[in-house]
Inverse folding.
């Protein structure tokens, strides 16, 4: 699968800020295809999991109201050198995962 | 030498695939817990109830919502929620006037700080409500965002 996650993590004073961009259409299922008159089928990320050094930090449950090519940022107690893994699963069962080290 | 670089090339290509298959066993198991009813709820009360367990929220000044006063493009509205409430378990973002108000729910572990930032779609001018669950209580705060071009439908 093509790489869909771009992430960056930076430590500052015992706190790590993680920023991630995921490329995904985030189709709500309500938008109309003008050519066919039918709605585009729903296709959005339902769950994003983030962990640091194998320990779960955050689980994000998303609906179709999250923007296309979603951006996610969060903070946790950690340090430089931590391995931050971000993975997502969408409503079609597609998924991806990426790991970055904290700078 | 040639062989070495060939190896490197294949390795780089396959790590992504391995990472994807190895890292995702856990989330797909968790996925069963995705609160379908809450995300499909058509009103704010049901949406909040679906993620927080109750719709009785207490307004709190400890929750800060950072969002634009006027969003030119409703399809991409940056929203940042930060809370100083101790022991926050989850932060939900609810868009009051969207067809399905619940946009996102972030479950925080003890490692995570009370801070999340993302971008959401907004159909029209509406309140953005942040719902923070901590220690069995549910707190909320809201901020109005004016939308000049809606982000739903097309």
């Amino acid at each position: 699968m093509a790489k869909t996650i771009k992430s960056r993590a930076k430590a500052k004073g015992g706190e790590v800020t993680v920023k991630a961009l995921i490329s995904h259409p985030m189709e709500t299922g309500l938008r109309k295809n003008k050519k066919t008159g039918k709605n585009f089928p729903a296709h959005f990320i339902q769950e994003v999991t983030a962990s640091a050094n194998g320990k779960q930090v955050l689980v994000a449950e998303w609906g179709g109201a999250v923007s296309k090519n979603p951006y996610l940022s969060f903070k946790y107690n950690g340090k430089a050198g931590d391995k931050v893994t971000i993975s997502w699963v969408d409503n079609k069962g597609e998924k991806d995962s990426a790991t970055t080290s904290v700078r | 030498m040639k062989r070495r670089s060939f190896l490197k090339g294949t390795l780089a290509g396959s790590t992504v695939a391995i990472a994807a298959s190895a890292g995702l066993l856990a989330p797909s198991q968790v996925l069963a817990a995705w609160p379908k009813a809450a995300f499909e709820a058509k009103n704010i009360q049901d949406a909040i109830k679906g993620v927080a367990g109750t719709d009785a929220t207490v307004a709190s000044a400890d929750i800060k919502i950072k969002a634009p006063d006027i969003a030119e493009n409703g399809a991409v509205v940056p929203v940042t929620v930060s809370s100083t409430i101790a022991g926050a378990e989850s932060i939900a973002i609810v868009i009051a006037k969207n067809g399905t108000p619940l946009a996102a729910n972030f479950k925080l572990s003890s490692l995570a700080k009370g801070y999340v930032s993302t971008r959401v779609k907004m159909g029209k001018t509406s309140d953005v409500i942040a719902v923070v669950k901590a220690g069995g209580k549910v707190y909320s705060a809201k901020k109005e965002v004016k939308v000049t071009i809606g982000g739903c439908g097309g």
The mean pLDDT of chain A is 87. The CA atoms of residues 21 and 71 of chain A lie 5 Å apart. Chain A has one domain: 5-98. Residues 5-98 of chain A form a domain with the Immunoglobulin-like fold (CATH 2.60.40.10).
